[in-house]
Each structure stands twice: as C-alpha cells, then as structure tokens.
Amino acid sequence: MAAEKRVVFRSAWLPWALLAPQAAVIAVFFYWPAAQTVLQSMQQSDAFGTSVEWIGLQNFANLWDDPTYLASFSTTAIFSILVAGFGITLSLLLAVFADRVVRGTTFYRTLLIWPYAVAPAVAGVLWLFMFSPSIGVVAYALRMVGFEWNHLLNGTQAMALIVMAAVWKQLSYNFLFFVAGLQSIPKSLIEAAAIDGAGPWRRFWTIQFPLLSPTTFFLLVINVVFAFFDTFGIVDAATSGGPGKDTSILVYKVYYDGFKALDLGGSAAQSVVLMVLVVTLTVLQFRFVEKKVNY
Amino acid sequence: MKLKSKLLLSCALAVAAASSTPALAQTEIQWWHSMTAVNTEWVNDLAKDFNASQKEYRVVPTFKGSYDESMTAAIAAFRAGSGPHILQVFEVGTATMMASKGAIVPVGKVMKDAGEKFDPSGYVPAVAGYYTAPSGQMLSFPFNSSTTIFYFNKDAFKAAGLDADKAPSTWPEVVAAAAKLKASGHKCPFTTAWQGWTQLESFSAWHNVEFATKQNGLAGLDARMKVNTPLHVRHIENLANMAKQGLFVYKGRGNVPEASFISGECAMINTSSGFYGNVAKNAKFAYGLAPLPYYPDVPGAPQNTVIGGASLWVLAGKKPEEYKGVAKFFSYLSSPEVQSASHKRTGYLPITTASYQLTEKSGFYKEKPGTDVAVTQMIRKVTDKSRGIRLGNYVQIRAIEDEELEQVWSGKKTAKEALDSIVSRGNQLLERFQAANKS
User: Fold this and answer.
1) What is the average per-residue pLDDT within A118-133?
2) Half-sphere CA count of A286, side-chain side, radius 13 A
3) Which of A134, A150, A254, A263 to mutate to test the interface with B (most CBs of B within 10 A)?
4) Which of A1, A93, B133, B391 has the least CB density, counted as fewest CB within 10 Å?
C-alpha cells in the first residue's frame, strides 16, 4: 500500500467542534426520538398519557403471541425483495438507455425524475385509481383482454399493486444515482473495449456494471430501508393492508396501531423490532455484499 | 456567535409580536371537528349563529382532518399542554375518551358548574345511553349521530320486474330480489359499506342479540366478543353464498362502496343514514330508503339499530370562565329549533325527542319520504342487548372485522372460522384495553 495521505488535526477540540452541528442534528432528530421509542415500548398508557405504567417487555410478548404479526414478517420480506429488486433493475435499465440517448437527454431525464416529487400517499392513490376494480382504466383494459382484476379480494394482486406503486415512486431516485454513476465511468475505457470488438452487452457486463457496483450497493441499502420504513403511506392509500392482512407490512402496522388505533406502547415496541431488523440487515449487507464491491 | 445573536433577535421579535396583539375582550372557545364539504359549512354556521347571539364568548371551529386524525392531533396537543376546549370524537373513539379520565371533563359537570340547564332524559335513549358512563353520568355531548339503513335503486328494480315501491324487508327477500336483478343483467345486485358496522354490529342490535357481553361493553371494560353465535354464522354464510353466486359484490372497506351505488353499478346497499345527502344530490336515478333487512324467524327482530357518528368532548385543563362559555354553547346547541334545523340540513338524526316532534310537525318527513327511516329505527325502547356497542380498542376491532370478513368473501375462510377469529383476536384487544385502563 502506498503511503497514506492523511491530514491530522493538531487541535484536540477543533474536530469535535466541526462535528458538533451535525451531531446535534442527528441527536435531536434521530437518537432522541429513537430513545423515546425504546422507553415507550416498555410502557402501557391510555391515549392521553394521563396514566403510564411500566410493563417491561409485555408489549413485545404480545407481539410474539400474535400470529398475524409474525405472518407480516414474510409479507414484508416479499414486499421488500420485490421493491428493491424491481426498483434497482428497472432504474438501471432506464439509466443505461438514457445514457445512450443522443438528443433530448435533459427532457427524458426530467420526465424520469418527476415521480420523486410525489408523496408516497399520493403515489398510492394514483395507482389505486388506475387499478380500481370498478372505475380504474387499467382494470378496465385488463377486463377487456379477459383478465379479472380485483385487488379488493385477491391478495396477490393487492401485493402487485403496492409493489408497482412503491417501485414507481423510488424509480427516479435510483435512476438519478445510476445516471451519475454511469457518467463517472471514463469514456476511454468503454471506447477501448469497443475498439477491441466488445458489443454493448459485453461492455455493460464487463465494464459498466462492475464499475457501478458502489452505486448499486448504496442503492440496495437505501431501497431496503425505503421498503421497510417509507411505504406505509402507499399501503394506507392503496389497500389499507387488505385483503385480510395480505399487504399488511410491518411499518404499516406500526403506523396503524400508533396513529389510528392510539396504542402507543404496542406501536413503539413494533418500531423497536423494525429498527433492530433494519440495523441487522444493513450490517449484514455491509459485511457480505460489500465485499463484492469495487471502489 | 453571529447565528446565535440572530436567533436571539428573532425570538425577541416573535415575543414582541405575540404580546403586541390586543387582548381580546371575548373568551375564545376552540372547537376541533372533522366535518367535510357541506357539513363544514353547517359547523361554521352553528358557531357563527352562536357568536352572534351573545357577546361574551366566541366559538372558533377548526377542521383538523378526518375523525382519527383530529383525535390524534388533540391527543398530541393535550400531551404538549395545549389542545382545544371542545373535540369532536367519532363513536368508535368513545371508549378511549371515557377511559381517559384525567383528560376530559364530563359534560354533565360542565353544565352543572356553569349553572346551565341540561336534561339527559330529553335525548333519544339509544343516543344518550351510548355516551353515558356505567355510573349514569353523561360524559360527552351528542352531536351528529347516524345509523345504518338500506338504500335501493328504484329504476333497477323496475327493469328487473320488481315492485319499486316496496323494498325487500327481510334477508330472504333481499336474496330473491338480488337474484332477479342479476337475471336482468345487473352486475352488482347488492353491496354493503362499513361491513363490520352494518353486518355485525347493527345486525346484532337489530336482532336483539349480543355483539359483546356486559351489554356490549356499555356496562364495563371486562366485556368480551360474542359475534360467533349461530345467528351471526348463518348471516355471514348467507352473504358468502350470495357472493359466490354474484348476488353480493364486495366493494371495499369503510364508505368506499357507496360510490358504486351512486354510479348505478350496485342496486342495493347497506350503509349510513348520513349517506342520504350524497344520494339526494348525486344519484341520477329514482331511489328509495328502507329499514335494514332482518330474519323474520328470529324472535324480537327487528329491534333497533346502533348509532354511528360523533359527539363533542370537553377537554380538561382549561380556565373556569372558558368552561362557562362551553356550557353556554352546548345550551344553544340543545335547543329543539337548532337541532331540528341541523337534522333537516344534514340527514343526521334528531337527537332529542323534542326536535323529532318539531321536525315531524313541520311536515318534513312527508315532503322528503324516507328521511324518517333512520329516526324510526332508532326511536324505540331499547334493550340491554341493543342499546349500543362501546368497546375499547374499537378502531382495531373494526379493522379485524374487515380483515376476517374479506377472507370469507374471497372464499379463504368459512363464516364460522372468520367469526371465531374475530372473537379471539377481538378479545385479546379487549383484555389489553382493560389492563391499560384499570380504574
């Protein structure tokens, strides 16, 4: 290894002082609420918080005893894999195409970035309108070709609906990063390969894709976090977790129990479970997937 | 440093701005509500008329989102030490409010302290009973109450060769009518909105059977679910069979299915009496209102239906003169004239007997046939099984009803399995609520 070029602060307090603003923001907006959640998860209180009782791990025991809660783990796993998988694949495809567009690049990119400005709940409603069994345009078209669409009673179709909405919502974000990643790959590499006779397909797999791996890895982490945490608005607007509990993912139940049913202790306990789960997943990703990444 | 001094300056400015507003001579009463569209105007008019009727108090209505949103907002505000004086809470939130003893002031106490006249016995029994604690004290002020009724499309009935002037009054008649509608090419003969409320809760009271023990929860927090009796199973099985034959088409949770009646897609629907205003304004066909269907062989049926809608709660921690203003406002709302005008305007029930009589005298029910269906379903002598249903964690229990019934309509579970599951899952929630709200 070459000699490290590391700048060292001479002062003892300056680095801390420079870190302080960011640390303060993280403490106020992340650590403090997270600590509150952990405290609340061990309490049982009425909605107004006039009587608070410490009950230890009872809230967690309740979750453990609830078969529907345990079932929503597999629902969440399916949902997250589909959202991250389709989200990353589709956006990579679009980014590679957009990278090859010669005219009107800005126009295409702007269109593709648009959905990012849409709130999750609105995304849910948009897709619901298109697929509504009685009035939806797409549902109508499907019926014309002989496919009966009814996500009100068909769990698989309901899952497909929220996956589509979530993927569409996250597509722009992924796209943006892939486009930036593709642009940072030196043109000389690709041109050299082209001169050596490699076709577009070959060039993509042997040059662009490996060089994109830091971006892909970053997006994998971000998309899994998105699917786990930011999708309750989509579920609430599109399916409300139904039919039955077929689309009731973990974060939707956190939202529902906390903000609609006002069971703050139970909701906090679920948040803690979710937090632990995502931290574990992220650590695992860094531990195992990151090894395959070339920086 | 610079940032800090800037911050200080802006704080100082904010304080100066706040204190420079002239002190109001009037006492302000904050009222958070969840009424949308035409009903927002109704609420604003009530406040405006009250404010014009006297000078001491000013009621300020604020729309705070849907029922659950405004309740969450009020709870957050209360925990932060503020919050409104009056909060409109939907019927399923009633048990939660009742259990939050430190957060509310019983309406009876507010009225008594202010020396205002208040007679709970003037209210329709099914309404008053719902908002009265087991101790007999009335805790909240009944405001907008509705109940479940039956709507049908007269044009579709005619087209199917049915008698458009006579609604099916029993479930066997509904099935027969649905079969005829289907034979005439109708894709959705029957649907239901609020499936838990209409097909399980109101259904129980209407047939005079318990939905839950302890008088459906009115008599205490140790109530447990009872919706898996043979009668309940029979009804849900009946609906499941209708679904299989295409006679009943499931159109979603909450009030979502209502749109399919307005559009003419579904010919019959069970839903809230509060749907009337929407039908009257938007339906492009002749329609009829009728009482809920029942099973004629069940003794005691039809009894009465249960209420939905909301009541007004007074939150704790305010100044005595503000409570006086709240009491004055409630007195104003209680007058038969105001109540009768509200009933005619919104389709919500007239909640006092006096206002019902006043409305009847005015000839309103003859003018608009069907508007008295909800009233006559409610103004009856109630039994302990039919007075109302008030359970803890009710919002979640409603969600469980939706989840389990959907499994029946899609054929994944039998009626018995789903109802058993509602009972066991519901009981867990009831036990937890009881533990969290020990008195």
Assistant:
1) 88
2) 6
3) A134
4) A1
Q: Please report residues of B whose CB lies closer than 8 A to that of A155.
A: 410
- Cross-chain Cβ contact A48/B78 below 8 Å: yes
What pLDDT digit, counting tens, does each position of B374-411 carry? 888 887 888 888 888 999 888 889 999 999 999 999 99
Ramachandran assignment for B394, one of left (phi > 0), alpha (psi -120 to 50 degrees), beta (any other): alpha
Q: Which residue type does A176 have?
A: L
Estimate the crossing angle of helix B107-114 against helix B320-334, to 10 degrees. Answer: 100
The letter for the amino acid at B143 is: F
SS (H, E, C) A36-102: HHHHHCCEEECCCCCCEEECCCHHHHHHHHCHHHHHHHHHHHHHHHHHHHHHHHHHHHHHHHHHHCC
Please give the span between the terminal C-alpha atoms of chain A, in angstroms, as a whole number.
Answer: 15
For an interface test with A, the pick among B191, B265, B396 (most A C-beta atoms closer than 10 Å) comes out as B396
Question: Is ipTM beyond 0.95?
Answer: no
- State the nearest Cα–Cα gap between B234 and chain A, in angstroms: 21
Q: Which residues contact B324 (CB under 8 A, 6 or more apart)?
A: B27, B57, B113, B114
Listed residue (B389, B396, B385) closest to B431, CA to CA: B396
| Nearest chain A residue to B97, by CA | A47
What are the structure tokens assigned to A240, written together? Answer: 């409300």
Residue type, B183: A
Confidence of residue B2 (pLDDT cuts 50, 70, 90): very low
Average pLDDT, chain A: 88
pLDDT at B68 > cutoff 80: yes
Residue ranges per domain, chain A? Answer: 82-294
What does the pLDDT read at residue B256? Answer: 87
**Considering only CB atoms, which residues of chain B are within 8 Å of chain A?**
68, 71-72, 75, 78-79, 96, 99-103, 250-253, 259-260, 263, 265, 393, 395-396, 399, 402-404, 406-407, 409-410, 412, 425, 428, 432, 435-437
Q: Looking at chain A, how many residues does it have? A: 295
Contact across the interface for B79 and A48, Cβ inside 8 Å = yes
Mean pLDDT computed over B16-32: 66
- Give pTM, 2 decimals: 0.85
- Most distant CA pair in chain B: distance in Å? 85
CA distances from B256 to B39, B269, B400 (A): 19, 12, 17
Q: Which CATH architecture has domain A82-294?
A: Orthogonal Bundle (1.10)
Mind telling me how many Å the CA of A10 is from chain B's nearest CA?
Answer: 23
